[in-house]
Structures are given as structure tokens and as C-alpha cells.
Write a sequence for this structure.
């Protein structure tokens, strides 16, 4: 469970969003009240209630292991800001 | 001087052998033209929805059964959030708190160790425990160039098992054995082709050292770029003494990731781990949970004979040694070949010997796999039978074998064609024996004065005289009788 003392700076860093000090303050208080609101759920008595990840009681929605053609490469690369040698080019990254 | 213990944990990724990807119908194909097996789902385009590949789930269940894992009644998929260009959605679909399989173990055996280490195994029949096996999607492949990186999304979305071991591994040789057994199991089950050269099996290693007699694990260092099973062994064989040396010199170790350079034979620093990653896992709302029972039932029906079961059966049914059984069952196709050849054989052990000696070396010389072997298993059994029943002797057998291997003809035909039938007629051999004894008075005298080895010389002369056709044991008997 998220802590109500959420650090907006940390969340922004994880999401790669640059915030000014003013924005940080605004979002800190806004997100804080959202979390406080959700915290109300903590007051409920949930003894005997199974934890669920989904509201729908539906399981095992599968597909057959069969191949279907995907997109044409030209269409795929047309969406990329930059491409060469049939690869999507991005700013150089090194792990 | 302080002695140190190494603690090693492996995280192995295995690509499942499916036709299509984990959450979409794009083909899984190694070496395809870049960005030709992609669609809105594996490209992470907005609005695309993933649907699970049932076969991938069955294969995961099969892996769990073969490794003796616990499979819970329900598992689910979660989003692992991070930013990297090989992951276009900015999250990888993985499993967090409800993985498919928990526990289990990989049993090591003598032959799974490197050849040069099989005589000095620290703990016989050691079992390496597993923490878990979960199912996730593979990421895209990046190519790093001078100023930019290029991405091929064909691999993105390939079903991938992550198999995490407990830190039970104590040496580079055990790590080697662990990976060898795991790879064999994946192939036996048809779960994965597990070819490390094709990236179908990949391995991350965590290793630390601590002084003997202490409980607390040392600083964990991660090794990357270990691209073969022997590479893992070499990487660890370098890294463990490196850590020990630093500690003995009074230094300290940082939690870091190091890269193995197989050419230079050393590990170099990649990055220091500053803080634990925060992947902000949460259940993927696009994917409904999975009830495992029907998948486990389907996998149970497909459970193959396990390598150690096959070994035991070869020993029991065919009377081969434990060692030979291990070599024969090492490769599934080799095992099937042996079994077909040995099924009707009177002396399956002799069939095994021909496979392990002559056939394997002929295949190696011709750079052929057992699949392309010019001699059918039934044909090999026929050859062995011709030898065992005395029609030809073993030297002639080698000649017939070579002919069979190069022409694909049947043994009996070659024997007729070349007039190779062994002479087992006592009268004919006696005549040859008389000739040999008359021509070699020296060795005859030697034998009579007690030099038993002279008999072998005389027997050799007889064989030569018969152009190799005489029945060698009969020739020996007759000579011995005549010398008395």
C-alpha cells in the first residue's frame, strides 16, 4: 500500500517528469488529498474478504498459439521519429 | 590466512518454444528481418490489448512439474514499470506476488559437471533449490552504435520463463552443472530449445563471498554478459578470487554490476547499485487471473521421462553402466537412437559401445548430428549381431562399419560383397596354424620355454595369413592346443 506521505519528487523522478518547486508543492498537496481519500478504505472491516486483483469473476481468457501476420514494416517504421537499417533509432542508451 | 566461501545464485531466463508471442499472435522467430514480427500489442501502441497464449502457460506448468515446484491454484500478471527503449509500453508484463511456480529443485549429477571437474565433486547428488519460476514477456533487442541505439522489436513479447535459484550454489563448477541440467530439462520437456547462442537461455549471476564460519552473506555482486555455460564458469572462476583478494587485502566490496569479458577473461565494472529499483509493480488490469488446474492437467499428460529416470531405465533394461547411460541419455535423439538399436539386440551393451566409440567419433569426424547419421539404428544392431554371432570378427566389423557409414548400405550386404565372412572352420584354421608354426620356430621355442606372450605373436601371424578372416578366438585355441 502506498504511504500517504508520498514524496512527489521521487515519483516525478521515477516517471521522468521534471517539476518546478511550485509544481512540486501543488502536486504534493493534490496527490496528498487523493491518497487521503483512498485511505478511507483502510477503515473498512475486511475480515473474511479474499483479496482480488480484478473486480470481474472471470478467469482463463486465453488464445490459441497460432501465428497471424502483424504490421508491415514500413508502417511500423513510419511511426518512429527516426529509423535506419530497419531499426527504430533512439538516443544512445547503455545499461 | 582467512578462508572464504562463495555463495552463488542464478537467475535464468528461458524463451518458451511457442509459435506465437505471449500476448499477441506475432511469430516467434530467431534471426528474422528486424521489425517484421510486430503488431500494436508488442509495440505497445495505445489501446492495444494483450491476450495470453495458452500454450505458454501449459509449458510453464510443465516446467513446474518437471522441477517439482508447487503450483498455486491461481496466478496473475503484474506490470513492472521502468523506462528503457527496449520496452515500448514503459512496463514489462511479469508476475510479482503470485508467480506460476514456487520452490522446486534442480538435481545435479556427476556428468553434468565440467569433464575436468567430475573427479572432484564437492557434494555428490546436490540439489539446488529454486525460489520461483514465473512467466513474463521478453523485451526488444537493442543494438548499440556509435552515437545512437537501434531497436528491433521482433523479440519483444516472446514468452519468457524466469527461473530463480536459492543461493545454494557454492562453486563455478556447480553453476555449470546447474545450467547443464536445467538446459537438458528444458529440451527434454520441449519447453525451450534453450540454445544460449541464440539467446533462448540467458543467465544473470549473483555472487558473494564470506569468511568460513560466518553466517552473514557478503556483498552481492551481479555478473552480466555470460553467454555460455562455460562462460558462466569462467566468469565465476575469475570473480570469486577477485573478491577474496580484495577482502584479504583489507578492502571492501560495493554492491555493483560487473560485465564479463570472455576474450580478456576478466570482469569489469558496469555500474554501482545506488538504490534498490522501484518498479512500482501492480496487477495488470488488462489481464484476468489464471486458474492453473486445467493447465497443470494438460501439462501432466505431456510430462516426459526425466533424464535421471531414463538413465536408471537404461541401466536396468539394457545392462549398460551408469556412465554410459548418462552419456547416451544426454541428448534426446541419441537416447532414441540407442533405444531403437538396442531394443531387439541380444547384447545391448555391445550396441552401446559401438554408439559411444565408433559411431560418435565417425559422426564427429563427418560433423554430423545423430539425426543425420547414415547408419539407421536397426542397421547398427545388425552389425553388432553379425559380430556377436561370429559371422565376422571385430576387426572386420570396423571395416563393415566404415563402409556402412560412407555408403549407407546394410551390414550383411557388405559382408557378402567383400567376402568378409569370418573363417570359423576348424580344419581350415588348423592348416593355417601348421603353416605359421612351421615358419616361426623362434617364437615357438620362446612359448615352450614359458614366454606366454609369444602366443599373441603367433596368433597375429595367423590372422595376417588369413587376411583377417580367421575367427580370432578359435585361432588362439587351436594354436595353443598345437603347442602343447
Amino acid at each position: 500500500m502506498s504511504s500517504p506521505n508520498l514524496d512527489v519528487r521521487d515519483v516525478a523522478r521515477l516517471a521522468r517528469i521534471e517539476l518546478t518547486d511550485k509544481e512540486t508543492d501543488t502536486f504534493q498537496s493534490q496527490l496528498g488529498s487523493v491518497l487521503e481519500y483512498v485511505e478511507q478504505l483502510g477503515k473498512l472491516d475486511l475480515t473474511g474478504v479474499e483479496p482480488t486483483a480484478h473486480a470481474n469473476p472471470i478467469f482463463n481468457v486465453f488464445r490459441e498459439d497460432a501465428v497471424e501476420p502483424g504490421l508491415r514494416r514500413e508502417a511500423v517504421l513510419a511511426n518512429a521519429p527516426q529509423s535506419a537499417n530497419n531499426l527504430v533509432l533512439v538516443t544512445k542508451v547503455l545499461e | 590466512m582467512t578462508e572464504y566461501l562463495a555463495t552463488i545464485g542464478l537467475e535464468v531466463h528461458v524463451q518458451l518454444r511457442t509459435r506465437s508471442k505471449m500476448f499477441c499472435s506475432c511469430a516467434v522467430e530467431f534471426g528474422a528481418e528486424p521489425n517484421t514480427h510486430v503488431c500494436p500489442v508488442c509495440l505497445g501502441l495505445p489501446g492495444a490489448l494483450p491476450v495470453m497464449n495458452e500454450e505458454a502457460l501449459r509449458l510453464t506448468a510443465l516446467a513446474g512439474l518437471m522441477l517439482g515446484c508447487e503450483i498455486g491454484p491461481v496466478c496473475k500478471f503484474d506490470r513492472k514499470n521502468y523506462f528503457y527503449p527496449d520496452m515500448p509500453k514503459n512496463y514489462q508484463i511479469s508476475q510479482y506476488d503470485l508467480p506460476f511456480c514456487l520452490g522446486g529443485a534442480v538435481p545435479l549429477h556427476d556428468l553434468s559437471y565440467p569433464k575436468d571437474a567430475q573427479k572432484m565433486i564437492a557434494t555428490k547428488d546436490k540439489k539446488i533449490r529454486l525460489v520461483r519460476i514465473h512467466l513474463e514477456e521478453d523485451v526488444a533487442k537493442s543494438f548499440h552504435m556509435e552515437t545512437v541505439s537501434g531497436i528491433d522489436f521482433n523479440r519483444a513479447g516472446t514468452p519468457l520463463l524466469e527461473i530463480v535459484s536459492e543461493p545454494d550454489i557454492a562453486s563455478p563448477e556447480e553453476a555449470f552443472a546447474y545450467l547443464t541440467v536445467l538446459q537438458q530439462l528444458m529440451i527434454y520437456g520441449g519447453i525451450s530449445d534453450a540454445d544460449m547462442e541464440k539467446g533462448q537461455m540467458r543467465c544473470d549471476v549473483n555472487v558473494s563471498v564470506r569468511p568460513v564460519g560466518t553466517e552473514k552473506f557478503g556483498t552481492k555482486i551481479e555478473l552480466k554478459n555470460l553467454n555460455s555455460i562455460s562462460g558462466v564458469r569462467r566468469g565465476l572462476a575469475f570473480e570469486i578470487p577477485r573478491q577474496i583478494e580484495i577482502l584479504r587485502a583489507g578492502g571492501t566490496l560495493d554492491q555493483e554490476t560487473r560485465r564479463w569479458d570472455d576474450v580478456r577473461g576478466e570482469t569489469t565494472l558496469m555500474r554501482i547499485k545506488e538504490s534498490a529499483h522501484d518498479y512500482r509493480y501492480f496487477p495488470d488490469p488488462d489481464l484476468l487471473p489464471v486458474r492453473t488446474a486445467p493447465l497443470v492437467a494438460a501439462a501432466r499428460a505431456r510430462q516426459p521421462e526425466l533424464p535421471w529416470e531414463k538413465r536408471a531405465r537404461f541401466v536396468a533394461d539394457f545392462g549398460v553402466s551408469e556412465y554410459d547411460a548418462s552419456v547416451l541419455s544426454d541428448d534426446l535423439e541419441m537416447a532414441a537412437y540407442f533405444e531403437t538399436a538396442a531394443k531387439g539386440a541380444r547384447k545391448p551393451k555391445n550396441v552401446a559401445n559401438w554408439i559411444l566409440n565408433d559411431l560418435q567419433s565417425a559422426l564427429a569426424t563427418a560433423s554430423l548430428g545423430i539425426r543425420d547419421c547414415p547408419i539407421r539404428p536397426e542397421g547398427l544392431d545388425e552389425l553388432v549381431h553379425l559380430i556377436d554371432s561370429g559371422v565376422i570378427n571385430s576387426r572386420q566389423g570396423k571395416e563393415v562399419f566404415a563402409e556402412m557409414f560412407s555408403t549407407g548400405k546394410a551390414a550383411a550386404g557388405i559382408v557378402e560383397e567383400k567376402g568378409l565372412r569370418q573363417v570359423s572352420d576348424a580344419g581350415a584354421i588348423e592348416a593355417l596354424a601348421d603353416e605359421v608354426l612351421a615358419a616361426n620356430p623362434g617364437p615357438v621355442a620362446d612359448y615352450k620355454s614359458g614366454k606366454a606372450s609369444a602366443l599373441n605373436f603367433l596368433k597375429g601371424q595367423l590372422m595376417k595369413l588369413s587376411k583377417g578372416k580367421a575367427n580370432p578366438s578359435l585361432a588362439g585355441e587351436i594354436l595353443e592346443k598345437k603347442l602343447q
